[in-house]
Design brief:
Elements lengths: L6 E3 L3 H4 L7 E8 L2 H4 L3 H10 L3 H15 L23 E4 L3 E7 L3 E10 L8 E10 L2 H26 L1
Antiparallel strand pairs: 1-2, 2-6, 3-4, 4-5, 5-6
Helix pairs in contact: 3-5
Length: about 160
């Protein structure tokens, strides 16, 4: 049986309350294997970044060079051993076994990423949902979001699918 690919789902309105005024939000979901379903959300997030496709790592590297001149933070796809500092360079805001919230506030925009693991039920397999929300603060933040969104919508499902493969 073929494993379903990552797919777009409705965003959880309760999560979005953590970033009032967010102008962009989306969520993608995958079905987890039995082994993955026993791992914490933070472990799954770390694996997702560690196993990012090489083309994603290349795009992030290009993005980092391009945005440096505008004072935007560099994204770091590397996962270190110090789990207290964050996941792939993104600070951990909140964490439980079932969910990890990453993100930061910057002068141009604020963003949050939630990685949530949902346990299997009698009618549904275990799933992992990655929700992204962004609140822009000024023209540069809105311009950046407009440029990055087409890439985001390809990168997130690709990273989730790679995690599941």
């Amino acid at each position: 049986m073929k494993t379903p690919s990552a797919h777009l789902v409705d965003t959880d309105a309760a999560l979005l309350q953590a970033l009032p005024g967010a102008g962009f939000a989306d969520a993608f979901r995958i079905t987890l294997s039995d082994e993955q379903a026993r791992q914490s959300a933070a472990q799954l997030a770390e694996q997702m970044f560690r196993r990012a496709p090489s083309w994603v790592t290349l795009l992030v590297s290009i993005r980092n060079r391009a945005v440096a001149v505008f004072g935007l933070r560099a994204a770091d796809m590397q996962v270190g051993d110090d789990r207290h500092s964050g996941v792939a360079g993104f600070p951990i805001i909140a964490q439980s076994d079932d969910m990890v919230q990453l993100g930061f506030d910057d002068k141009h925009l604020d963003f949050r990423v939630w990685v949530r693991r949902d346990a299997a039920t009698p009618t549904s397999p275990a799933q992992l949902t990655l929700t992204t929300a962004v609140r822009t603060k000024q023209l540069l933040g809105r311009a950046y979001l407009g440029v990055i969104m087409p890439f985001h919508r390809c990168i997130v499902p690709a990273m989730l699918n790679r995690l599941r493969s």
